[in-house]
Amino acid sequence: MTEISFYDAAGGEDTFRRLVHRFYEGVKEDPLLRPMYPDEDMEGAEERLRGFLIQYWGGPTTYSRERGHPRLRMRHAPFVVDEAARDAWLKHMRVAVDEIALPEELETKLWNYLEYAAQSMVNTPS
């Protein structure tokens, strides 16, 4: 038997598209996070996060084919990511996760990863 991926169990690309789009709607209005995203790259940032999450959770590997290894800490190194930025990121992601309304087991797995990932990006002590 073939095990179904988280990506497929969660609803595939549509779910991740909705998740990331809702997340960036919050980011666009956030005074702490918004300056990290130039206007001309907001759409690109959304596409990159969506692609990364799709790949991470078992979907197509387009992200790595186009961008190489994720190297998340390195890619975030130019930005001040302190606990306040982490908390703001998680606040907007929490809204997005709640809106996609995954089954509890999937939501818990996704949220645990997002909390871990957000903490691992912190590069500046508060």
TrEMBL record:
<comment type="similarity">
    <text>Belongs to the truncated hemoglobin family. Group II subfamily.</text>
</comment>
<keyword id="KW-0349">Heme</keyword>
<keyword id="KW-0479">Metal-binding</keyword>
<dbReference type="InterPro" id="IPR012292">
    <property type="entry name" value="Globin/Proto"/>
</dbReference>
<protein>
    <submittedName>
        <fullName>Globin</fullName>
    </submittedName>
</protein>
<keyword id="KW-0813">Transport</keyword>
<dbReference type="InterPro" id="IPR044203">
    <property type="entry name" value="GlbO/GLB3-like"/>
</dbReference>
<keyword id="KW-0408">Iron</keyword>
<dbReference type="InterPro" id="IPR009050">
    <property type="entry name" value="Globin-like_sf"/>
</dbReference>
<dbReference type="Pfam" id="PF01152">
    <property type="entry name" value="Bac_globin"/>
</dbReference>
<dbReference type="InterPro" id="IPR001486">
    <property type="entry name" value="Hemoglobin_trunc"/>
</dbReference>
